[in-house]
Structures are given as C-alpha cells and as structure tokens.
Amino acid sequence: QVKLVESGGGLVQPGGSLTLSCTASGGDFSRSIMNWFRQAPGKERELVARINSFNVPWYIDSVKGRFTISRDNAKVTAYLQMNGLTPEDTAVYYCNSPRATGDYWGPGIQVTVSS
C-alpha cells in the first residue's frame, strides 16, 4: 500500500513563494512517476507538473518558468517549488502517483495566494 502526504502549504502574498513536499511510504518511489495536481474552487482538478523516474519534468503552460518539480529518492519525497505566485494559483494541491498497484493520492493541501 502506497501512502502520500503533502506538506508546506499555506497563505502567501502575491509574488511570493512556497515549496510543497510530498512524502511517500510503500512501493518503489524511485521508479515511480510523481504528479502534482490542483483544484481551485468551482474548477476541475488539473495536472500542474509531473516528474518521471528519469527526472524529466513536465509543466502545464500556466506555471512554466514559475514552478519547479523535483524529487529526492533517498528521502522518498517529491517537491513543487512555486515562485511568482498569483491569486490564480490558489487551490488545493494534491500529490499523485500512478503505480502498477493503483492510482494513489495524498489528502491535499491548501495554497492561498492573497494580500
């Protein structure tokens, strides 16, 4: 059984930065894809960033140049460094990892960008 737990969310002013962490337990972290999704109020959940087992990242256009996804296999943790935050980035952010045994999600963490 794989368990994912997010941390690092909170309230930040426009233009500010936050780093989200997703720590995994169970399964083979080093071989897994790690995704960050977000869901804003009244909107569908969307994939924001992905990193594969070769450390190749992918980003949705709206966060390119502002967000950086990374991973530390020794710490079984994926990160999402978010810079230049805007109110449009306000959402619940979810860590996700599709595995052969299933599609695993963290409980989500709130990120609020407001002055």
Structure explained in plain terms:
It is a single chain. The strands form 2 sheets. Strands 2, 4, 5, 6, 9, 10 and 11 form a 7-stranded mixed beta sheet that branches. Strands 1-3-8-7 form a 4-stranded antiparallel beta sheet, with no helix packed on it. It has no helices and 11 strands. The chain is 0% helix and 53% strand. It is mainly β.
Short account of what is shown:
The chain is mainly β.
Lay out the secondary structure.
Elements: E1 3-7, E2 10-12, E3 18-25, E4 34-39, E5 46-51, E6 57-59, E7 67-72, E8 77-82, E9 91-99, E10 102-105, E11 109-113
Average pLDDT, rounded to a whole number, is: 97
Total E-strand runs:
11
Largest sheet: 7 strands, mixed
Q: Topology as H/E string?
A: EEEEEEEEEEE
> What is the number of helical segments per DSSP (H or I, 4+ residues)?
0
What Rg do the Cα atoms give? 13 Å
Secondary structural class = mainly beta
Q: Work out the oligomeric state of the chains in this entry.
A: single chain
Q: What is the terminal separation in angstroms?
A: 40 Å
Cα shape: globular
Residue share in helices?
Answer: under 10%
Strand content: over 45%
Low-confidence spans: none
